[in-house]
What we know:
- The protein is mainly β.
- The protein is built from 2 helices and 6 strands, in the order E-E-E-E-H-E-E-H.
- Strands 1, 2, 3, 4, 5 and 6 form a 6-stranded antiparallel sheet that branches.
- The termini are far apart.
Amino acid sequence: VTSPTANNASPxxxxxxxxxxxxxxxxxxxxxxxxxxxxVMVEGSTFLTLSKEGYNVAVFPSTGDFHRAGFTWPExxxxxxxxxxxLIHEPSGSxxxxxxxxxxxxxxxxxALDRIVLNAILMGPSM
Length: 127
């Protein structure tokens, strides 16, 4: 049974699930990462579209299995998350804007993204 007000065209909020992203290992934000794939936590209903002028540093794969753990909404979450981006670098004037799809250091226990955050803080001003 589906609610008459349900809209399958926009993301439904995810309470916190783990998904695989593909890293652009040629970008300075991913310096120090040895693998081209990484698991990240996704929560909320904000999914970022691919940047047209910046760099899509970590993207969700368009095909294949990329859900690792946690709750998802059938026929919504995985379908709408595919091909979107988790991490964007946008040059802005003489500076940089680094956009994460959600909190990269969630409660201090999701350690996989600490290096990317550190690269953004330390290396960003010198790029």
